[in-house]
Amino acid sequence: MVHKIALFNHKGGVSKTTTTFNLGWMLASKGKRVILVDTDPQCNLTGIALKEETEDDEARIENIYNTHSNIKTGLAPAFESQPRAIEAVDCVPIEGQEGLFLLPGHVGFAEYEVTLGIAQELSGSIQTLKNLPGAISDLLEKTANQFNADYILIDMSPSLGAINQNLLMTSDFFLVPTTADFFSVMAIDSLSRILSKWCAWARMASANPILKEAAYPFPEFTLKFLGTIVQNYRIIRGKETAAFQTWIEKIEDTVTHKLVPVLEQNNLLLPKQVYTEQSMNGSCTLTKISNFNSLIALSQQHSTPVYALTTEQLGQTGVVLKANQKKQKEFKTTFSDLADKIIALSSSYAVSA
Ligand SMILES: Nc1ncnc2c1ncn2[C@@H]1O[C@H](COP(=O)(O)OP(=O)(O)OP(=O)(O)O)[C@@H](O)[C@H]1O
Ligand SMILES: [Mg+2]
């Protein structure tokens, strides 16, 4: 059974895309079959995974788009009333890591936002729209089956629109990537408020007989929270701020006192002992990730996670090389531990459910 995990935070630039790529690669290196889904019309994940750097790359990517399907063309049968059913997307194998695939994004995916919003508001009362709320879930399930996937990681856009509402509420699990700064504290506060509304809608939609009997049925509502990931790479006025620790504490405090109670009320938490077994505290912090510094540019250049860059890809010698290899080792441990936690949390729920 596939586990669908959404990486969600409506605040931009908190490392949703970067974490999706690094984590997905690590899960695949542990023998899992993983599909990375780019649902952000910015298509950053698609750009990183397919290595968009030179003009030649552009032609290669254009060819991929012409021969493989993507999130938008995959959903077109439902959203553009085409006389054919939704089919699995022909995902692209990601070079360098076996078992890792990309379901490419599309800039035009945002065009479906308004129609989906209307369909979700009306929840089945207009016949022609009843197939839309379950369409994304149907596409992902069919694709997971085709690729025999263990995990689907969904890289979401920074918004609170209808597409994100649908993606999150039809996922099995979600992670909240966040950065240690004031705006992330604000974002967690606002997430806490929106989640209750979305959960109320999802409960209603999954019990709605019209949506259940649609060509693409709206799935059961089973969402659970895996935890937060705190990154401290923000650079303020050219310097890393010295106040990171304070902001990390503020983030954890806001999660504990604002987000967790909402998660509890909406039954989005796993049993407490499942988190404690993974050494997670009351703020559900899965891991803290520090600044990748110069490794991030090389990672993007080579479409390879920071921890998996080879000596050749690093292109350095002497002390600089040594220092970067030391950092890589630390990041490898961080992502390996994170992947282990995610495997443990998600499988514990599947067993107990
Ligand atoms: N740990 C890190 N250290 C240094 N830079 C990082 C780190 N994580 C992410 N970045 C950089 O920060 C920027 C934002 O990251 P990313 O695009 O992953 O965020 P995002 O949440 O997906 O953004 P958006 O909301 O726009 O989709 C990127 O330039 C990325 O390379
Ligand atoms: Mg992104």
Would you give an account of this structure?
Strand 3 (92-93) and strand 4 (100-103) form a beta hairpin. Helices cover 51% and strands 13% of the residues. It is of the alpha/beta class and 353 residues long. The chain contains 14 helices and ten strands. The strands form two sheets. An eight-stranded mixed beta sheet has the order 3-4-2-5-1-6-7-10, with helices on both faces. The chain has helices at residues 16-29, 44-49, 55-67, 71-79, 113-122, 135-147, 162-169, 182-207, 209-212, 244-265, 272-277, 294-302, 311-314, 318-352, and strands spanning 3-7, 34-38, 92-93, 100-103, 151-155, 173-179, 224-231, 235-236, 239-240, 285-289. It has a single domain (3-293), classed as P-loop containing nucleotide triphosphate hydrolases (Rossmann fold). Residues 12-18, 40, 42, 44, 158, 231, 233, 289, 291-292, 296 line the site of adenosine-5'-triphosphate (ATP).
The tally of strands reads 10
What kind of sheet is the major sheet? 8 strands, mixed
What percentage of amino acids are in beta strands?
A: 5-15%
How many structurally independent domains?
1
CATH topology: Rossmann fold
Which features would summarize this protein structure in a list?
Rossmann fold, binds magnesium ion, eight-stranded mixed beta sheet, 353 residues, globular, two-stranded antiparallel sheet, binds adenosine-5'-triphosphate, 14 helices, alpha/beta
